[in-house]
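Ticket #4471: structure output looks truncated?

Reporter: J.K.
Steps to reproduce: submitted the chain below (287 residues) through the standard prediction queue, then opened the result file.
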Amino acid sequence: MQWFGGKESDNVEEGSSSGGGRGFAVGGGIVGLIGLVIYYFTGINPSQFINNSGIGGGSEQQNTRLAKARTPEQKEASMVFRGTEEVWDSLFRANGKTYEKPTLHFFTDAVDAACGQATSAVGPFYCPEDQKVYIDLNFYKELSDRFGAPGQFAQAYVIAHEVGHHVQNLLGVSQKVQQAESQAGSSTERNQYSVALELQADFYAGVWAHYENKYHQNGLVLNQGDIESALNAARQIGDDRLQQQAGQSVEPDSFTHGSSAQRMYWFKRGFDTGDLSKGNTFKEMGL
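Returned output as attached by the reporter:
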């Protein structure tokens, strides 16, 4: 993965909660996976900690727009984010739509999002209420050391997946899924919608990589090792693999993000085709 004149996004900010959060909000991300690990190891459902009422009592946060004082890790994440902006802006315009750019928000330990309070344990997530992608960059060390998914492009895949949720929000997919989940007759059916949503975000991450690699809109050049790095990340955070690592039996009915094979397949399909019409994960899952 090499950069040739890559630009950083202007839509980047930093801010963390003070006073600690009472819980965390999951906006549908690549890693509700840390929350899943909490569940598998402790039996505690992370959703009980969610505070969807917004900013909690006594907690203060100041968001600061980042300029030139970014760390190397922030700079690279910002360049990846800029690449997603350019690719999705082009694709939306080609389809007669307007791409509303999200914001990349860096935080440390805990943060107050419009969707609720979150700690770093939840991993990167997207909040549709404020259209922001939240990430504590310390997660990348967890991704490498704990989950065996090192590499710059594995990190890029994380951001591109969360931006995929923003695309779903803009296209109205997220809202339809929420309605379908509320009408679902069982937790298994609700989980199926969640899996389809996550797999489509993986597909959109692959679409971004396809066009970034094809046109180098933000100066990013990929090699085969980069794609393998992203596929390995998708493999390591599949629901079945996480359940196995936690010493649990594999229970497909409990999946919320998809199996390793599914996550790898849909990212690769997006990367190979770059065709948005090929990403209807809901139809292919019979939903």
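Triage note (M.O.): checked the attachment and the full token line is present. Strands lie at 2-3, 12-14, 64-65, 103-106, 110-113, 116-119, 125-127, 132-135, 220-221.
Status: closed, working as intended.
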